[in-house]
Write a structure and sequence with these properties.
Layout (H helix, E strand, L loop, with lengths): L16 H9 L7 H4 L7 E5 L2 E4 L4 E4 L2 H4 L8 H13 L11 H13 L6 E5 L2 H18 L7 E5 L8 H5 L4 H4 L10 E3 L10 H15 L4 E6 L3 E2 L5 E2 L2 H14 L2 E5 L24 E4 L11 E5 L1 H5 L20 H16 L2 H16 L8 E7 L2 E6 L1 H4 L3 H10 L3 E2 L6 E4 L7 H18 L4
Parallel strand pairs: 3-15, 5-6, 5-7, 7-10, 10-11
Antiparallel strand pairs: 1-2, 2-3, 4-12, 8-9, 11-12, 13-14, 14-16
Helix pairs in contact: 4-12, 5-12, 9-10, 13-16, 15-16
């Protein structure tokens, strides 16, 4: 029997010219295009601060920071000016055999932010590529050291690290992974410390990790984690003490620890690096992307230690780390990232984020007593809650997204998890607007409490 054919919207009020052209030519990411024909993409023409504007001039508060990349709002003047200045000077030069000031300066600034513990910066283009680099670098480092059996990886249940083949191998989100599972290397999956599972979740997760490392002792190259928040798992949060536990286990069993800070870094969690909150030293690798360029240009990077760097130091080319892409360390992207770090250095961003996080917490506190809601939680500038199964209903995420758009709020729930990861532009009035709008949207798409 043939599958039912979804009929696209045809009314001009529902389908703008730009959206129509997009559906005909653009294959949108993380989108079932048959469904996009029914619920067309929102045609955005410009951005200003925390707001995006469509073809008709309607505005939408960007509550998810355009997939978590936008730190200081759209069209930030200082970041834009840094890009413009660099554009007239040097847009790009290959980083193999050449170097340039923006890349060197960015690496130096990030090195300083780790207290020189992670003193070597390798550039890439996107988060998944950074994860692949960290995995390859860990394996190759052990091989260069003569420990060739260390070729396995451990990841965390429901963790997400990207959608390229290597990154998918350490991703445990079924909707992304299952179709490509036959292509992937086998990783060991340890239990998640997701606090929604109860007060023993963290201890049980560490015990399960110990079990895997004991059973595969001498074969594991690295553990990869998302510090403090497993974002694609529905903003699953855990305590900083879990980081201390995994750092101890990695030291005990002699494996690398990779902290994937692509989503949670750059101040999202309350500190510049989320791993800092563990107060247990540093991981062996940190991956960064998303917010590092302030929502302007694609850039990712991997920070690592002197020990890893030295394991590649040789006259033998084959012992070098032979990974690249054409735009490695792009000067424009590095200039944007330097402007972002300058903001952190000059504007007391982390201190202001603590105040903004408190405003969000106060505004959303009433949801703790809403019978439709469970697991209201927050880590820095990330706030989330879940709809109880009986309240969510069919296609909850889509219905919530569309209803919120009618109220000038652009937000994309993950399953039945509603979350906010807004730009760092929150004042008391904005926090109240966000709460009022989310509550009104809940009242529309769910049974009123």
């Amino acid at each position: 029997m043939m599958a039912a054919v979804l009929k696209p919207m045809t009314r001009s009020s529902d389908l703008s010219k730009l959206a129509s052209r997009s559906l005909a030519a653009v294959w949108h990411p993380c989108t079932q295009m048959a469904r996009a024909a029914v619920v067309p993409p929102l045609a955005i023409t410009r951005g200003e601060g925390a707001w995006l504007f469509d073809e008709e001039g309607r505005r939408y508060f960007d509550a998810n920071s355009s997939w978590w990349v936008n730190l200081f709002g759209h069209c930030d003047a200082r970041i834009n000016e840094a890009i413009k200045q660099q554009l007239d000077l040097l847009p790009h030069v290959m980083l193999a055999g050449c170097t340039h000031e923006p890349a060197v300066l960015l690496a130096e600034k990030l090195k300083a932010l780790t207290g020189d513990a992670l003193g070597h910066c390798f550039f890439a283009s996107d988060g998944a590529s950074a994860v692949e680099i960290a995995l390859k670098m860990s394996f190759h480092s052990w091989r260069n050291l003569g420990q060739t059996d260390k070729r396995e990886f451990v990841c965390i249940r429901h963790g997400y690290h990207g959608e390229t083949i290597g990154a998918l191998a350490v991703t445990d989100v079924a909707v992304f992974r299952d179709a490509y599972d036959p292509l992937l290397m086998r990783a060991h999956v340890a239990a998640s410390p997701d606090s929604r599972q109860g007060p023993d979740a963290q201890a049980l997760a560490l015990a399960d990790l110990r079990r895997i490392l004991t059973e595969r002792n001498g074969h594991v190259a690295a553990l990869i984690i998302e510090p403090l928040v497993q974002c694609a798992a529905g903003m699953a949060m855990h305590e900083p003490s879990y980081l201390r536990g995994v750092r101890h286990l990695c030291d005990e069993f002699g494996i690398h620890l990779i902290a994937d800070e692509i989503a949670v870094g750059c101040g999202r969690s309350g500190t510049f690096f989320a791993f800092e909150q563990g107060q247990c030293g540093w991981p062996d690798f940190i991956t960064l992307s998303k917010g590092i360029s302030g929502g302007t240009l694609p850039l990712s990077l991997v920070l690592t230690t002197e020990a890893v760097f030295q394991s590649f130091w040789s006259e033998d080319v084959a012992r070098g780390f032979l990974h690249s892409h054409s735009y490695t360390g792009n000067a424009l992207a590095c200039a944007a990232a330097n402007a972002v770090l300058d903001r952190f250095a000059s504007d007391a961003v982390l201190e202001k984020n603590l105040e903004q996080a408190a405003l969000l917490a106060a505004a959303f506190a009433p949801l703790a007593d809403d019978p439709r809601v469970e697991h209201l939680r927050q880590r820095g500038m990330i706030l989330a809650f879940d709809l109880r199964v009986e309240s969510a209903g069919e296609r909850f995420s889509e219905r919530f997204h569309l209803a919120a758009r009618e109220r000038e709020l652009l937000i994309r729930p993950i399953g039945r998890t509603v979350y906010l990861m807004p730009p760092y532009l929150i004042d008391a009035a904005t926090a109240q607007f966000l709460f009022d709008t989310v509550l009104a949207t809940l009242d529309e798409v769910c049974d009123v409490a």
